[in-house]
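Dock zinc ion; give full complex structure.
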Amino acid sequence: MKRPRLVSLLAAAALAAASSAGASECLVITGAFVSDGSGRPLRRGSIRVCGEEIQAVGTFRPGREDRVVSGRGLVAAPGFIDIHNHSTDGLAEDPLAESQISQRITTLVVGADGESPWPLSEYLDARRQLSPPST
Ligand SMILES: [Zn+2]
């Protein structure tokens, strides 16, 4: 059996969607082998990205307005979760988390070593002020 190429489609697809489509337009990657991080075997499916948000992962048909990209023969991972990192202070200097995004990480869990800023509400408020406006 021919093994699928390991390619992270999502980053390229999301960037393409963000750069050429409005927030209401969606991009659907179809027929890829989806790695969802659950530990389950790869399964064929689709991923819908609207603006900067992953809206669906699974088996569904693209809508008439969706841009469609074939993921046939490729593996798509709709974002990774970094559960152990030292990005608490780094997010102040890199509020767009470009370092993590370039590694296909979409979710960070900070404070993994038992440390966290205090008061936490001030830290979170500061991160929200530095974040790009949501669409
Ligand atoms: Zn650590």
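Observed: The two ends are 43 Å apart (CA to CA).
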